[in-house]
Amino acid sequence: MFLSCQEGNHLCWTRHEPVGVCGQIIPWNFPLLMQAWKLGPALAAGNTIVMKLAEQTPLTGLYVAQLAVEAGFPAGVLNVVPGYGPTAGAALSEHMDVDKVAFTGSTEVGHLVAQAAAHSNLKRTTLELGGKSPNIVFADADIAHAVETSHFGVFFNMGQCCCAGTRIFVEGKIYDEFVERSVERAKMRNVGDPFDPNNEQGPQIDESQFKKVLEYINIGKNEGAKLLIGGNRSGDKGYFIQPTIFANVKDQMKFAREEVICKIVIVT
After folding, report:
1. How far apart are CA 168 and CA 153, in angstroms?
2. Exactly one of 128, 148, 180, 223 is catalytic; which is it?
3. Is 128 one of the annotated active-site residues of the chain?
């Protein structure tokens, strides 16, 4: 509550109130972190929540809901729903009793959430959508450090990160050396069981994402980018993909403009 008294018989009064019922839809790449980011602020502001978990990673969110029950949350304050986007997610976005919907995920689905919110009760929306983050390396940089941190920016969490630095812009003076060192670093990355501390890189989340990554690798090849390393499946089972680096990438290329959520380094 904010009160501001002015001269005369006037009173300015701003009262902060909970929005009400908040629908929340989270992705699969960081299930616990995404859940915490959405639950904390909404609950602290006095709202009730209906959260739709990603169908690929529902167990973490369901366990957190069980912990909330054990902690004594009143019934109906925190509600967690597993399900698919076209059914559970759509129902939440369209529901007339939901006052706000918060969505983290692809730009494509973000359009659908916004449309559903507008067509129903014109509910408020918060959309955190796909990105294509650039990483810029200048000639006066420590190249070894730049290569290492750039690789971390792309390969962290198997590249399945909305803020991954998947486009690396390198100043011309050091371009060739940076690319050469990047390839050598990629050769050193161990791919395999993510629970093995000797491995740096695990699998993609599921078959659909695995196929999508390979599709974009082929798009890059067909568009004329130079594949320097990787580009194929790693091993003969699971959804593992080799660390992949492309050079001579142009800004207008499809895979340089669209979010892939993968471990592909694009050096421009």
Report:
1. 10
2. 128
3. yes
